[in-house]
Structure formats: C-alpha cells, structure tokens
Write a structure and sequence with these properties.
Elements: E1 10-14, H1 21-27, E2 32-37, H2 40-50, E3 57-61, E4 73-79, H3 88-101, E5 102-113, E6 120-121, E7 124-125, H4 131-137, E8 142-153, E9 159-169
The protein binds S-adenosylmethionine.
C-alpha cells in the first residue's frame, strides 16, 4: 500500500460515531475539526471520550446528505457511513453535500464495505462498493486519485472487506458549484 500524505487544515469526520479517529486528529494538532453524526447518542459518547479535548472539536448533529458546514473544509473523511445509503437519490445528495463542503483541491477519504464485503451493518442493509462505483457516485465533484481494498478485523474478530478511496475536489466550475 502506497502512503499518501494529504495536506489539510480543516477536517470533517462524517458519521463519526465514537471512533478514536477524532481524538487522534486532536492529538495530531489539527485545529479545525468538525465531527458530524446523525445520532445524538453517538455524539454524546464521542464528547465523553474526548474529555477535556472536547472543546477542540465542533460536534454537529447532522445528516451527511444535507449538512451545511459554516465553512468549506480541506478534508472530508467517512468510514462506514456512505455505505448505509442504498438509494441512488440519497447517494447523489451525499455526493453533492460533500462537494459543496470541500474546497477545490481538498480531499475526500472514503472507507466503505467492498463488493465482497458484508451485506449489512448494525442490522441495516448496506450498499457495497468498488473503486468504480465510488468514482461514479462522486464524479460530479471529485476525481479518484487512489483506491485499494483491505480486510478489517472488528474487535469481535469478524473480518470485513473494505474499499478505500482518496479523491480530490475538482476546481471551480464543476456541476455542483
Ligand atoms: C458504522 S458507524 C461508523 C462510525 C465511525 N465512522 C467508525 O468508523 O468507527 C456509522 C455511523 O454513521 C452514522 N450515520 C449513519 N447514517 C448517517 C447519515 N446519513 N449522516 C450522518 N451520520 C450517519 C451512524 O449514526 C453511525 O455513528
């Protein structure tokens, strides 16, 4: 796997859940971190896990399909949220929102269940993806730079196949401007 460095001064973690990523971003010195989740309990849990660092993160209860950030960011990160959208209209709304939320030249990082990954997550049917399907879903605003698949082993020992994608936001003038 090639290591890619993505410069970023502002990041939104979409469908953050209570993932440790947000704390890692704080510890890495990111100054402008936004954590979005549709579920208030997830945000409450994240806030509790951040402890005294919670005031360094803007926690937003919002839907990835419609959320409006106060300012566009340079990095949108989503692990295991986009795959909950099984409907083309919802996927298009998410892609439009991501494009609106990321500055030209900024990046989109996705990690979703792969084509041979699980068919459900948290009891809900998911859409499984390939690099091509992700590229297609986000083609209105983003260009695929890199993708790969890997197995993720959950804390309970279950192996899940994920597809990871790194995309760059195209410049001014795309269809979602
Ligand atoms: C499987 S969890 C992943 C959490 C975290 N990203 C991680 O990797 O550990 C999916 C999260 O996405 C949130 N979610 C689902 N649909 C969403 C939506 N439309 N907008 C925002 N968050 C959503 C859920 O509430 C949940 O916290």
């Amino acid at each position: 796997m090639r290591r890619v460095t993505v410069p970023s001064d502002s990041v939104v973690v979409v469908g953050c859940g209570s993932s440790t990523l947000v704390r890692e971003l704080v510890d890495d010195g990111y100054a402008a971190i936004i954590a979005v989740d549709i579920a208030q309990p997830a945000l409450d849990q994240l806030r509790a896990s951040l402890g005294h660092c919670a005031d360094r993160v803007k926690l937003v209860r919002g839907d990835a399909r419609t959320v409006r950030l106060a300012q566009p960011v340079t990095l949108w990160h989503d692990r295991a949220t986009f795959h909950f959208l099984t409907d083309a209209v919802d996927q298009a709304a998410y892609a439009t929102t991501a494009a609106r939320s990321v500055k030209p030249g900024g990046h989109l990082v996705l990690a979703e269940f792969a084509a041979d990954g699980p068919t459900s997550c948290s009891g809900l049917t998911v859409a499984r993806h390939s690099p091509a399907s992700l590229q297609s879903a986000f083609s209105g605003g983003f260009e695929l730079i890199e993708s790969f698949e890997r197995d993720h082993v959950t804390p309970s020992g279950v192996t899940q196949r994920f597809v990871h994608a790194l995309m760059i936001r195209r410049g001014v003038g795309s269809v979602v401007e």
